[in-house]
């Protein structure tokens, strides 16, 4: 029996529903299954293949042994609330009140979900930069709001200020910003951030900034929009320990925002998960307090890995958009004779022993053709794995 009900509209809106009413597997599941079947190196799904700082792992063991295994406070464990405030001050010079301006969530995903549900009403518009992280479309659909995409175009994926001005209007309630950006690895420049702040004020909108890759930047240090003049009062800043400390399975995320905004989001969050991850919260607090050299080391190591993969892709004959941050690189398959990245991704395990995902997976139906030949590769893997992937890719050069 095919169920009916509002969820059908929601799931169809998010592109998750097949015509027969069953849930379609995501491209990530499909490509990971292909990797498992073919034994190819999986550079499709973006998760690290090794553990992060040992101090962080040890702190979690200690917390479990110390009996921190029951529900933590609704806003988060005080250790972590204070560590987040210290982190915002140390890296960005922001004074954040740990008691009223911070909320710990079940990963960045719950911070985004609770924010979108708290700040929008059905029919409101939410502006996103396209291509976008797949959860955004799903969450906006669940809220009954309408997604308004602004294109990021090959090869540097910088937004056009005129496109942005056209997209934001009085119906805009939220602008979602992902900087550094998944899937393209682009980072926003100062002018774009200033324009976003100006537009948020003019149209009474919120900026919801997904900064999970804040420490994974290569060219220049990250600047949160909330740390810029006029940004703070309009911005919900979201981050997570998952990408920085290679602990994606722990799902410890957080947000910082003005006190009344945090309270509004908390009213939603308490009915989503209520709370989560009590022993992992003090462990992530430990991570946030680690020395500058650790954060530096994480970025420099990732930069070296980026260079291995970019080298392999170039030798193979791809055009490459070299990322400023995140752990993804986008390459154009046209020089290799593939106009359809999906087709290339299906052939890639056989041709090069590598799995990747088409960028069209991050694009709504309307604009998919603009991204048809682009492929996303992840480089959050150990160096020998990336070396092997790079030499596999070189086989494409024939
Ligand atoms: C991985 C990722 C997330 C999810 O973060 P969690 O802390 O695992 O919920 C959110 N946004 C982007 C852009 C990501 O790449």
From TrEMBL:
GO CC annotations on file: cytoplasm
Coiled-coil-forming residues are none
Fetch the Pfam families from UniProt: Aminotran_1_2 (PF00155)
GO molecular-function term, one example from the UniProt record: kynurenine-oxoglutarate transaminase activity
Aminotransferase class I/classII large domain residues are 41-363
Q: Which SUPFAM superfamilies match?
A: PLP-dependent transferases (SSF53383)
Alphabetical keyword list = Aminotransferase, Pyridoxal phosphate, Transferase
Q: Which cofactor does it need?
A: pyridoxal 5'-phosphate
Q: Which family does it belong to?
A: Belongs to the class-I pyridoxal-phosphate-dependent aminotransferase family.
| Database matches in PANTHER family | FI04487P
Q: What is this protein called?
A: Aminotransferase class I/II-fold pyridoxal phosphate-dependent enzyme
Q: Which species is this record about?
A: Labedella populi
- Which lineage is the organism of this entry classified under, starting from the top rank? Bacteria, Bacillati, Actinomycetota, Actinomycetes, Micrococcales
């Amino acid at each position: 029996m095919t169920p009916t009900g509002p969820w059908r509209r929601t799931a169809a809106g998010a592109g998750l529903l097949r015509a027969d009413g069953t849930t379609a597997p995501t491209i990530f599941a499909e490509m990971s299954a292909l990797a498992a079947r073919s034994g190819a190196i999986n550079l499709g799904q973006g998760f690290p293949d090794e553990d992060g700082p040992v101090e962080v792992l040890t702190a979690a063991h200690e917390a479990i042994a110390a009996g921190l295994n029951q529900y933590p406070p609704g806003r988060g464990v005080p250790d972590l609330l204070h560590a987040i405030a210290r982190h915002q001050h140390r890296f960005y010079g922001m004074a954040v009140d740990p008691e009223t301006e911070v909320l710990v969530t079940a990963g960045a995903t719950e911070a985004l979900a609770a924010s979108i549900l708290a700040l929008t009403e059905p029919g409101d518009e939410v502006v996103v930069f396209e291509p976008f992280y797949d959860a955004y479309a799903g969450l906006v659909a669940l809220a009954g709001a309408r997604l308004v995409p602004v294109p990021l175009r090959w090869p540097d994926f910088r937004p056009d200020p005129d496109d942005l001005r056209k997209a934001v209007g009085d119906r805009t309630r939220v602008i979602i910003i992902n900087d550094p950006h998944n899937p393209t690895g682009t980072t926003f420049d100062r002018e774009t951030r200033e324009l976003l702040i100006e537009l948020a004020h003019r149209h009474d909108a919120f900026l919801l900034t997904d900064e999970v890759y804040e420490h994974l930047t290569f060219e220049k240090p990250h600047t949160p929009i909330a740390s810029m003049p006029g940004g703070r009062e309009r911005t919900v800043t979201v981050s997570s320990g998952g990408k920085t400390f290679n602990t994606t399975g722990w799902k410890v995320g957080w947000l910082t925002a003005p006190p009344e905004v945090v309270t509004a989001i908390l009213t939603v969050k308490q009915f989503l998960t209520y709370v989560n991850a009590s022993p992992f919260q003090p462990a992530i607090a430990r991570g946030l307090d680690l020395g500058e050299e650790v954060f530096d080391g994480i970025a420099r190591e990732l930069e070296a890995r980026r260079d291995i993969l970019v080298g392999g892709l170039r030798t193979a004959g791809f055009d490459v958009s070299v990322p400023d941050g995140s752990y993804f690189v986008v390459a154009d398959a046209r020089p290799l004779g593939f106009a359809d990245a999906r087709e290339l991704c299906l052939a890639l395990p056989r041709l090069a022993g590598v799995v990747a995902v088409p960028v069209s997976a991050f694009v709504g139906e309307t604009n998919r053709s603009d991204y048809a030949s682009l492929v996303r590769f992840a480089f959050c893997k150990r160096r020998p794995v990336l070396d092997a992937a790079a030499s596999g890719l070189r086989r494409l050069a024939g």
